[in-house]
Amino acid sequence: xxxxxxxxxxxxxxxTLDRPERRNAVHRPMADAxxxxxxxxxxxxxxxxxxxxxxxxxxxxxxxxxAVADPLLRNELDxxxxxxxPMGPTxxxxxxxxxxxxxGYAVAGGLELALLADLRVAAKDAQLGVFCRRWGVPLIDxxxxxxxxxxxxxxxxxxxxxxxxxxxxxxxxxGLVNRIAPPGQALAAAxxxxxxxxxxxxxxxxxxxxxxxxxxxxxxxEALRREGHMGVPLVAAExxxxxxxxxxxxxRHGQADETR
Length: 260
Hints:
Blueprint: E1 4-9, E2 12-17, H1 28-43, E3 49-54, E4 98-102, E5 105-107, H2 109-116, E6 119-123, E7 127-129, H3 143-151, H4 153-162, E8 166-167, H5 168-174, E9 179-181, H6 186-198, H7 202-214, H8 220-247
Parallel strand pairs: 2-3, 3-4, 4-6, 5-7, 6-9
Antiparallel strand pairs: 1-2, 7-8
Helix pairs in contact: 2-3, 3-4, 7-8
């Protein structure tokens, strides 16, 4: 069994971590299957947004430490930091939006999977944290890179150094999650959000998303130049049609544009 389920729901790809008896802890075969699920999502032009969640009431408890002694099951460790990460897709440069729907635990490598997402929707009773701190296991699936970029260095070091648990309310306050849902409703809320994003004009949205990611690597002046260079052609490609809809009365007073 791959322990990963891939389902297309219209323009949304639902990717499920399906190993509930281990709180969806990831061993090598599961990591490989998860990476393949993301490759599939990226390659399918009909799929616009992906939602990642865990079966059985938990998002992911991280890498499966019980598999370390088994050469067939232990997570792949590349000392050069190559593209095949221990948790699977965490070193992939995703070109399309990903939303993590978090119930229960999203800890250690599971937190790193959640940090891969553009947006995180957490149930009110969810718990997040760098629990691998307790066992001498480092963050090697993007945690030391993405966490400071998302919540800032001070908050990131608080989590990285202490390994403490963070509840959904604190995670929302620090920007670690973007939405809170009632217990058991994180996936439903994430799917609503995914469909909203999938309904927007895609070229413009994807270009803005890419600019926001790339700017980290560029000086300010170059980032601003690139934003204009990539965005201006889309004013004619998508913006003109949107402006016409607005001038005809769509989307006034902040309402959703139902004419798309």
